[in-house]
Amino acid sequence: MADTVLTVAVPSKGRLKEQADDLFEKAGLGLHKTGHERGYTGAFDAFDDVEVAFLSASEIVHHLRAGRVHLGITGEDLVRETIPDVDACVSFEVPLGFGRADVVVAVPDCWIDVSGMADLEDVAAQFARAHGRRLRVATKYFNLTRRFFAKHNVSGYRIVGSVGATEGTPAAGTAELIVDITTTGTTLRANHLKVLDDGLILSSQAHLLGAKEADWSGAAEARRNEIVAKLKAAL
Ligand SMILES: Nc1ncnc2c1ncn2[C@@H]1O[C@H](COP(=O)(O)OP(=O)(O)OP(=O)(O)O)[C@@H](O)[C@H]1O
Ligand SMILES: O=P(O)(O)OC[C@H]1O[C@H](OP(=O)(O)OP(=O)(O)O)[C@H](O)[C@@H]1O
Fold it and tell me: Which segments cross the bilayer (predicted)?
């Protein structure tokens, strides 16, 4: 194998893996594992100087941020949540049309007078008077939530971290409302939650991203352009 000029991070597991694999297949890049079947490195038949690193969607964000890989496939929600200065760190090369999920603010159905973000500050004030504390928002999207609530001038809340079963937290009594992703809306409906009218924080999908901190000298840019062109042609 020639010296590596470019490294591409590809989801090794989880929701984005299968569709990323299908896309590389359609693009005719010939993605395959190198070393043993359970290993985490790969290569493309099409190029002998490109290395593939199989990583989880969340790890890919950190590798892109640090410039440890040149290109990577991961979800926009994870990128915008994890990297504060997104534009300085990464470039959005190709939206891939899969891994779609909306990050939304949802409240209990029974909050009949609450339909938009503007209502939340009033609810927070009433809640503070009645219970002597702030509204609790369950989420794993701490930064997206803080930015969105600040943009809507909502401040009477605190975040409670939640990495699973977030939609169950209002019924369980551990939060009053949530910020989470929804695709079909089934989980929200099943948990008697409704999305606020202007509660869409981000419409996310998987992207091919470039790392601005990576070493783009030599043939790296040319290789990137070839990979981008092949993926775009396969969409
Ligand atoms: N219904 C869904 N539920 C969760 N994630 C979804 C859904 N639909 C699309 N996605 C997207 O998939 C990506 C997360 O994938 P995955 O859960 O495999 O990643 P991860 O955070 O690396 O996983 P892990 O927690 O195992 O490390 C996010 O970008 C998310 O927006
Ligand atoms: O709008 P829907 O189509 O119902 O999808 C949204 C749900 O899917 C995911 O959870 P999942 O139960 O798949 O597991 P996870 O939270 O462990 O990822 C996500 O966290 C939401 O809860």
Answer: none
